[in-house]
Each structure stands twice: as structure tokens, then as C-alpha cells.
Amino acid sequence: MYVLEDNGTVHGVFVLIVGEDPTYRVIHDGAWHSDKTYATIHRIASDGMVKHCLKTVVDFAKTKVDYVRLDTHEDNKIMQHLAQKCGFKYCGIIYVADGTPRLAYDLLKA
Fold first, then answer.
1. How far apart are alpha carbons 88 and 81 in whole angstroms?
2. Please, which pLDDT band fits residue 22 given cuts at 50, 70 and 90?
3. Rounded Cα distance, 91 and 27, in Å
């Protein structure tokens, strides 16, 4: 887990996992845009006090890999909007361990 901090104050947290995520092996109603090695952004959260947290996380992830994936619940309209604003493209639907669907996105480093 990583933290986003400013002057010693934590404003956000996230998990970045480089390598295959078993949850992403099968995608429905679409396809990933690449088969390259990727990093997955999970469990991102912020306190709302600092803007552009997702962009900061994505910029960090792109220093590690050229290809990033993430997913979100269909009701999480804010995350869907922010992902697209950061350049992520919708890919399809994946199912997490408890069987619930998530909207899947990916981003290839330009």
C-alpha cells in the first residue's frame, strides 16, 4: 500500500500491484487493449482535501510500467469519470472473487 501525503499529512492511499491479477484473466463484453505486463490500481481512496489524486497515482504507476488497469463498481460514477479523464479506456466487465461485476479500464502509456 502506498500513501499520498503532503507535508506529513496523509491525503490518500492506494495499492499498486505489478503483474497478472487473476481477477482480470477473463473479461466479458469486451477485451483488454494489450497483453503487455501491467500494473493494477486497487483500493484507491482520498480524503478529498487534495485534487488530482488519481492522476498522481496514475503518473506514479506509469513510472513502473507502460500499461495500467483498474476496475470500479458500476455505481461509482465519480471513479468512472476520473478514470476516463486520466485517459483510461473502457474494456468490458470483470467479476471479482465474490462474483460481483466491475467495469474494467486500461491505459497504455503514450
1. 10
2. very high
3. 8
